[in-house]
Write a structure and sequence with these properties.
It is found in: Periplasm. One of its GO terms (molecular function) is iron ion binding. It comes from Halomonas fontilapidosi. Keywords: Electron transport, Heme, Iron, Metal-binding, Periplasm, Signal, Transport. This is Cytochrome c553. This protein is mainly alpha-helical. The protein folds into two domains: about 30-100, Cytochrome Bc1 Complex, Chain D, domain 2 (Orthogonal Bundle), CATH 1.10.760.10; about 115-205, Cytochrome c-like domain (Cytochrome Bc1 Complex, Chain D, domain 2, Orthogonal Bundle). The protein has helices spanning about 1-25, 30-35, 40, 60-70, 90-100, 115-125, 135-140, 160-170, 180-185, 190-205. The longest helix is centred in the N-terminal third of the chain and has 23 residues, at about 1-25. The protein is globular and about 45 Å long. The two termini are about 25 Å apart.
Length: about 210
């Protein structure tokens, strides 16, 4: 656990420096024009109508820019995004990311059994030492807004279906583009119920 937390701290510093200059030049107004096609899946206001696609409104710009570039460059495979960002420059990615980051984030309403939500709260705020799972709040902040300087995403208000499928993909290795591959290590230690619990808890977190 201590080694993992030390790795998190090192990654925060290194990634933050690498992204600072690009983020400073991001143009949300330019991003609005480039993001028109995104509305079909992610909603006009960056809030997806279905859990098959993530909400993007209020997401950390650094995280969104990285995902766009990872998809473009083949480091993250998303079938629904095939061809969508192939012609994006790094500047385009940052502009679109800034556009969505400026939107009002979704605020979810939890509708799950109390025991499940309590398990989610425990994992999010304290982790599970016995399983080697660190607290989600360490990277995603106590309110779920994420840490932009470290490229850690906001989770607050995200569709439970999307959060659950993302954790499953990290656990299975279908997705492996988190900093230092940390999420694959963490998710692989979570049970199906742990994943469901966290996914439902963050929906109403803000």
């Amino acid at each position: 656990m201590r080694k993992l937390l030390a790795s998190l701290a090192i990654t925060v510093g290194a990634v933050g420096v690498a992204h600072a200059d690009l983020q400073a030049d991001a143009d949300a107004a330019a991003g609005k024009d480039k993001a028109q096609a995104c509305a079909a899946c992610h909603g006009q206001q960056g809030i997806s109508p279905t859990g098959a696609f993530p909400n993007l409104a209020g997401q950390q710009a650094s995280y969104l820019a990285k995902q766009i570039m990872d998809i473009r460059d083949g480091r993250r495979m998303v079938a629904q995004m095939a061809g969508q960002v192939d012609n994006f420059s790094d500047q385009d990615a940052w502009d679109v990311a800034a556009y969505f980051a400026d939107m009002e984030p979704a605020l979810g309403q939890v509708d799950a059994d109390e025991a499940l939500i309590e398990r989610g709260r425990t994992l999010y705020r304290a982790g599970d030492m016995a399983k080697g799972i660190p607290a989600c709040a360490a990277c995603h902040s106590p309110t779920g807004e994420g840490i932009g300087s470290a490229v850690y995403p906001a989770l607050s208000g995200q569709h439970p279906e999307y959060t659950l499928s993302t954790l499953q993909d990290f656990a299975s290795g279908a997705r492996n583009n988190s900093p230092a591959n940390m999420m694959s290590d963490i998710a692989s230690k979570m049970s199906d119920r742990d994943m469901e619990a966290v996914a439902n808890y963050v929906l109403g977190l803000h």
